Amino acid sequence: MSTNEELIGRADVNDLEAILSVANTDVDEAIHVVKNNADAIFTWDYEKGRRPALNRLYEKAKTAQWNGATDLPWDTEVDQEAVVVANATANMGGMAGGIDPSVIADSPFAKWTEKEWIQVGVESQNWTLSQFMHGEQGALICTAKIVETVPWIDAKYYAATQVMDEARHVEVFAKYLDDKLSGHYPINAHLRLLLDDIVNDSRWDMTYLGMQIMVEGLALAAFGFMHQLTTEPLLKQLLRYVMSDEARHVAFGVISLKEYYAELTDAELKERQEFAFEAAVRMRDRFLQQEVWDRMGLNVKEVLPLVMHSPQRQLFQTMLFSKIVPNCKKLGLLDANGGWLRQKFTELGVIGFEDNPDTGEEYAMFQLAEGELAS
Ligand SMILES: [Fe+2]
Ligand SMILES: [Fe+2]
Prior knowledge:
The chain is an all-alpha fold. It is built from 17 helices and no strands.
């Protein structure tokens, strides 16, 4: 059995010092090269629909395309500071995001006025949307890789539609950042390590597990949370459109891996369980937004424990796993090998989601209704 140390580089998953020691030191790099070790697989079996669920998904994807340049109301005026205030007032119990006032009195936040709280809200938006954009580029690259590596024609067809979806997602997040917000952040180091691991792995199913199940499962939950909470109408609609695609992407992962994992040995499943755990921890670490606190001139180690204990933050951290846990359960990953991953998700405090609906069929619910598309 691998230890936490071997898997994530630290014995205690909550070891803040170790988490913060992973930082992006190449913030000025313009390109980032990752070795892609996989074989490109041709198949000579062209029978379309041999896997009916994938075929249905492919047919659905062909008619669900939208245009990021023309289907969204880009002429919407966005006053970023006003949005920060409106969001905080509507959802966060005020500008301090629910941090206990008695804790603030004794902390570096004590001197903060409304100005600093608004500034951190602005930085946090810039950071969040930047990481979404970088994650979408990860999805673009991973899905192009799946087109090459998956041995089934129905999956190659479907993955090809997802490549187009992801290009559109990168495009709309980049445009939103450029036109409506006030600055980009480089990729978070925890996210980059995870994307590197996924691209680097030679086994085709690991791309699916890392991207479609873990990264996109988390994205679907995070987009849903933000879609529900934001008071900014353009972002709300943008997220609505992206989620209609993401739900299909996660379904693609669940449907494909359900078939493949049924044939794996316990030892092979163990490697997948460990990979899922490692990905879960990396994704949790990135949401600490360490770069934002740093940019605000604060001692990150000092303020993070305060921020982490706010009830809103804790709700957000666990909610991120609301899709991942039931999907891992459906794939048999929670209970294989004596429930190894169940135990790990229990330690992370997210096992409570195991009986939520899985995303294998849920995509129909996210579909854009007739008339919801502008063109
Ligand atoms: Fe996407
Ligand atoms: Fe996606």
